[in-house]
Amino acid sequence: MTDERTYLVSGGRGIHEAGSPVNPPVDFTSTYSYRPGGDNRWEYAREGVPSWQPLEELLAHLEAGTRRGHSGQGFVTTAEEHPVPVLPGLLFSSGMAAISAVVHLLPPGGHLILPRHSYMGFSTLAQEMADRGLLTLHRVDIAETEAVRTTIADVATLAQAQDAPVMLWIESPTNPMLEVADLPALLAEAKRRGILTVVDNTFATPLRQQPLKHGADVVLHSVTKFLAGHSDLIMGAAITADEQLHQRLHQHRTLHGAVPGPMEVFLALRGVRTLAVRLDAAESNAAELARRFAALLPTGETPLRGVRYPGLGSHPQHARAAAQLGGFGAILTIELPDAATADAVLQHLTLWTPATSLGGVESLAERRRRHSTEPETVPDGLIRLSVGIEHVDDLYADLLQALRLVASENRDEKR
Question: Does pTM top 0.85 for this prediction?
Fold first, then answer.
């Protein structure tokens, strides 16, 4: 059996023939020659190029789990109890391009069930589509399983009366509140009612969670984040086991022109090949930081008011995360009393970089409510921490000195 880590390092390729390149070559061409009556698989780069294949097949392998090889029709799992044939993934020019293609699987007039906390770009797009009358939006607290089940049932009944389709969109853990959905329960409920299901797996990565095994129809990734892992490219991906959905997504990508460049694909593949070691290191750092900050809370020596990480026993869905995820990830949040205090802490950081995005080898910190479109249920003083692979003592020391400086400044102002 091929181990996931081994498959990652090999870049999704099998045994190399003598004299073949270790790294898949990059095709810098937009056009391919053809011959009447020939195979003519490749013609124009907007429709597909050989350079995309290794990464698209590697992502399919990772989302369906360890397997022996590619069957020609899709990867087939070696675990007999959970056979999941998965077609090669589809790369897009950005995460938002992949999101747009997937949400447009829902015809106009359809119903979209969406977590109240989710990636801000998609949340904004969904609201804009709802405002234009293209869909009816139903926001839910994705961690409240029974409430979501009730919404699914109510929306399904309404949609049936209207002869309208429904899509359930799950993000777990959510951005930025790190809520963990009960994937098996929600996906099973949606499937029972004939609802199309999508899971954004960006935070967990396929090394920690594989939604297709729980019955998801489509899995999404911002390749920009953990998969590529170096904050140097923009890319998205969609993976499905359904041939019809695959064809529709491929057609959307081709007709809308949302294709990645060959160099970006090369860099992304190189990044994914180190995903296992990067994620292990970053996750270990995040877990240790979460423990240290949780221990700091009761001392009162800093303005810290809360720490949220699925690996902490204090997390509302800790037990669910422990049972469902293969690891708790490299994202955590800390909460300060207000926006001014959080901004002051960010101002004093020297090792952490105040910046948006996440999933790179470097550690980033961002106050999420600085964005006007972030939901009001996200606290003003919440800072999302994307933990990198620096030494954990350095990361902790930098945040601790910033917290202490702000505490000292606050004491001076009160005198």
Answer: yes
